[in-house]
Design brief:
With 141 residues, the protein is an alpha+beta fold. It is 28% helix and 26% strand.
């Protein structure tokens, strides 16, 4: 997909680009080897570039059959509000539509304040009443 100045591809960013973009949104740095291995194990990657520079990315991880998790939907803060997130999610949704079978679960962990963005794509918040509240654990040294 090409929009004036923006070029999307279904290729992963380099590990260095991934780390730099994570840092720009305040997610912190990770080891280059960890970044590369994580990107390599993704089911699907998509990127948006402007003049060759990575300005957005998203990926899907999971088992590829029953469980799919949208991960790392990241847009450079200097380009937020320009529709880059929508471009990324359009690619992710196309991948999921062609891959997911009946009974599959697609999940994500929305960054605080981004819930409304994902509601557009049919995601619901786990309020703890019908479904348990979502949980996660972050591993540190």
């Amino acid at each position: 997909m090409k929009t004036p100045g923006y070029i999307t591809t279904d290729q992963p960013p380099t590990a260095a680009e991934y780390i730099a973009l994570r840092c720009k949104v305040g997610w912190g740095s990770i080891e280059p080897n960890t970044a590369q291995n994580s990107l390599n194990c993704s089911l699907f990657n998509t990127t948006v570039r402007l003049d060759g520079k990575l300005i957005g990315m998203a990926r899907v991880v999971g088992d590829g059959f029953m469980y799919f998790y949208i991960q790392d939907v990241i847009v450079d803060p200097a380009h937020q509000g320009c529709g880059i997130g929508q471009m990324l999610m359009a690619r992710v949704e196309t991948y999921l539509a062609s891959t997911c079978q009946a009974g599959a679960t697609v999940g994500l962990l929305a960054a605080k304040g981004k819930e409304r963005f994902y509601r557009r794509y049919g995601f619901i918040e786990r309020d703890g009443e019908t479904l348990g509240k979502g949980m996660c654990r972050f591993v540190s040294e």
